Amino acid sequence: MMMLMLFVASFAQAALATQVKVTPAEVAQIDLGKLGGTLVSELAWSPDGKQLYLQTMTEDRKALPKDIYHFVIPAAGGDVKKVGAAPDWATAYWTWKSGQAAPDDPEFKISLSTDKRLASATAIPMGGDMAKGGTGGGGGQGTTVEEATAAASTSTNVTVYTMRLKGETVGEWTDHRIMPGVTYGWGPPGTHLIAYGERQTGRLIIMDSTGAKQKIEGTRSISVPAWTSDATRLAYLEGRGHNRYALIVATVTK
After folding, report:
1. pLDDT confidence of residue 165
2. Which residues of 20-30 are buried (b: 16+ CB within 10 A; e: fewer)?
């Protein structure tokens, strides 16, 4: 344990987010159509770094958990084994991994906000061209009267829950409860790091407590990023289509 603490302390002193090197490797395929569940809700490391716990679920009409499924997967790759409940180590890990603040830095903390917005299913979709800074009308001419009228006729109020850190959005849900830890994962104590999926692209981002960040090229549609307790590996799921994912275990070096 003392050696582990010394390693993490050394890692924290020398490794800023822009300095770490992340080398991904696919170790397993995850197909929820075969395993069960429609959402991925947790990914956790065992203390010895040899296993990963995966939780999936279905939701009821109020977006609350309905059926929950539990799996254990060898970190080096292998069969996905269904188990009856989450191991105790997974519960303990998820507590700090998904917290609002870094495990040993209360100032490195995610802020929460709730907003009412007007969303349209026609000419001006939420998250579409307008949300990205475009005009919505094409050709730089702006939105036409016809488009605006059509959008207004199908508009509806939605509630958007947003998690922000150092000015960056690390999680956002529309008319759905916040799911802590699904879009981000804190590094272990001493590292002052966080991994999260970029809102627009789903690309993996590493950020440190100074606000410096690194985008990991070649990644996409990532979820449930999870660091080992010694910060030398980072696991996450990468979307591969409807209800299908690749389990990635990346080595992290400085």
Report:
1. 98
2. bebebeebbeb
Q: Hey, what are 3's tokens?
A: 């050696």
Domain-located, residue 189? yes
Round to whole Å and give the CA distance between 81 and 71: 5
Query: How far, in Å, CA of 41 to CA of 57, rounded?
Result: 7
Q: Which residue has the tokens 């890692």?
A: 11
Chain mean pLDDT for the chain = 85
Residues in Cβ contact with 170 at an 8 Å cutoff, skipping those fewer than 6 apart? 110, 163, 164, 183, 184, 194, 196
- Contact in structure between 207 and 18 (CB atoms under 8 Å): no
pLDDT of amino acid 152: 54
172 found inside a domain: no
Tell me the C-alpha distance between 69 and 83, whole Å.
8
Name the burial class of residue 104, with classes exposed (0-12), middle (13-18) and buried (19+) by CB atoms within 10 angstroms of its CB.
Answer: middle
Domain assignment present for 138: no
- 3-state SS class at 128: coil
Closest CA to 186 of 177, 194, 198, 178: 194
Say how far apart CA 232 and CA 58 lie, in whole Å.
32
